[in-house]
Each structure stands twice: as structure tokens, then as C-alpha cells.
Amino acid sequence: MRNQKLAEDYISRAEKRIEALKTLMKVEAWADVVRESQECVELALKSLLRASGIEVPRVHDVSEILVDQKARLPKGIGKHLERFMEISRRMRRDRELAFYGTEDLTPSEFYKEADAKKALDDTVFIVKTIRPHIGSSSPSK
């Protein structure tokens, strides 16, 4: 946990990816919005963990770590933890399916505009909620 600049890098990259998600929405790439939203949420949540001095695991869903380390997270984040966890778990579940599909499911046919819109809205919520707690201007814990 030496490189605290990674927290800023993660959240900055998540913010930039939101712009890519908007482009994918415009071209109606619903499955790709779902898949890329998961990566964006993962970066944002790992940014929060790193900024809080918590070891960042190499897993795609960090919801259990958020709960276990709730006391170490910045003030104001606790009221959003349940929603963070729900979003992270759902997006983790859809991660591979939205990218690869299965023999009986084609991602471009399965995912609809409503799925993509929910993924984008949830991603924006997480990134905007976490952003103020990252970097030199972050509020105290």
C-alpha cells in the first residue's frame, strides 16, 4: 500500500471511462455498456479502498471488503455502502456474460437499453459519490 497516487489514477480513469460509456450508449452497444460499466465501478471502488489505506484485493467485486472495513472508510460513505455493494455484486455477475455470452445467450441480443442505462446511471452514482473522497482535497475521515 505504498503508492497512494494509484487512488487518484483509478478514479480519474473511471471518470474518463464514463465518457466512453456515453459513446457506447449512442451507438446502442448495450452489452458493452454493461461490461465496461463493471470495470469503471471496480476502479472507483478500489480507488476508495486504496485512499482509505485498505489493501486492494485482486477480485472484481470488493463489496465484502467494503463491509469488513467500513470503519476505515471516509465519513459519509457508510450511508451508500448497501447500494455500492448491490451494484458491485450485480455488475460482477454480468461481467463475463456481457462480454463473452454463452452457447445459449448472445450479449448483443440479451442486453437491452434499460440494462445499459441502469449500468451507466449506477456507475455515474458511484464515481460521483467517491470522487470527493479521493486526492488532496478529500474531506477528513
Describe the structure.
With 141 residues, this protein is mostly helical. It has one domain (5-132): Nucleotidyltransferases  domain 2 (Four Helix Bundle (Hemerythrin (Met), subunit A), Up-down Bundle). It contains 6 helices and no strands. The chain has helices at residues 5-26, 30-51, 63-68, 81-100, 107-110, 113-130. Helix 1 packs antiparallel against helix 2. The protein starts with a helix and ends in an 11-residue tail after the last helix.
- The fourth-level CATH homologous superfamily is Nucleotidyltransferases  domain 2
Class from helix and strand fractions: mainly alpha
What is the CATH architecture term?
Up-down Bundle
Number of domains: 1
CATH topology: Four Helix Bundle (Hemerythrin (Met), subunit A)
Give a short account of the largest sheet.
none
CATH class group: Mainly Alpha
What do the pLDDT scores average to?
Answer: 91
Query: If helices are DSSP runs of H or I spanning 4 or more residues, what is the number of helices?
Result: 6
Q: Unreliable runs, pLDDT <50, ≥5 residues?
A: none
Helix amount? 55-70%
- Give the C-alpha Rg: 15 Å
Determine the strand fraction and express it as a percent band.
Answer: under 5%
Instruction: Write down the secondary-structure element order.
Output: HHHHHH
Task: State the end-to-end CA separation.
Answer: 18 Å
Oligomer: single chain
Shape category: globular
**How many E strands?**
0
